[in-house]
Design goal:
By secondary structure, this protein is an alpha+beta fold. It has 5 helices and 5 strands; from the N terminus they run αααβαββαββ.
């Protein structure tokens, strides 16, 4: 069942979103460049469909049974770091310890942990203006720990309690039976971390 759902999402929804993205780009090129409103609308359509395609890709990845092993999670995280950080010249330290690769996580837990991580890396890429990002994924004493730390400009959490996807990360952390810890100061960078007690995870 999970294989079929993943395949259907990839083939049907994925191809439709790709067609929308390509169509909006083509219409923007062929349209009247003097009509600024049309250009803005087409850009918005293209951006929305591209983001939806990326989100769907994460869901398909989470559903696919072949990604249940921790090794697949580590590979996905490395790929995200490469696409969002290293491709922009940000130095990345990616450390995995404690046999995370051998850990088998339930589908929903993998999805929530991956999306917390992706949001943290996205923030470091888009907002932090960081030069270096340290990512640490470890497993010890029945706990899976994730930390994403950057040396960027930081922010005042009190002024942005639900900004930069912070609220979404906290909700996903609650689903995992834990809490996302957000530490940041202006000019001092940001550290986002979570510790998941593996015995509390339910599929």
């Amino acid at each position: 069942m999970r294989n079929r759902i993943a395949s259907d999402l990839h083939d049907e929804v994925g191809s439709s979103l790709s067609a929308i993205t390509i169509g909006s780009q083509l219409a923007k090129q062929l349209g009247n460049c003097e009509d600024q409103r049309m250009q803005v609308l087409l850009s918005r359509i293209g951006s929305t469909s591209s983001e939806s395609l990326r989100s769907m890709s994460d869901i398909v990845w989470a559903i696919d049974p072949k990604n249940d092993q921790g090794e697949a999670l580590v590979k996905r995280m490395r790929r995200i770091a490469n696409e969002l950080l290293e491709s922009k010249g940000v130095e990345v330290s990616f450390i995995v310890t404690g046999g995370v690769e051998e850990l088998k996580l339930p589908m929903n837990a993998r999805k929530d942990l991956l999306l917390i991580y992706k949001e943290a890396v996205h923030n470091a890429s888009k907002y932090a203006e960081a030069r270096n990002v340290s990512i640490h994924l470890s497993r010890a004493h029945g706990t899976l720990s994730l930390s994403v730390k950057d040396d960027g400009k930081g922010f005042d959490h009190a002024l942005h309690p639900d900004g930069h996807g912070l609220g979404s990360m906290q909700r996903r952390g609650t689903t995992l039976g834990s809490m996302v810890l957000i530490e940041s100061m202006m000019g001092e960078g940001t550290r986002i971390s979570i510790q998941v007690h593996l015995t509390r995870i339910r599929d």
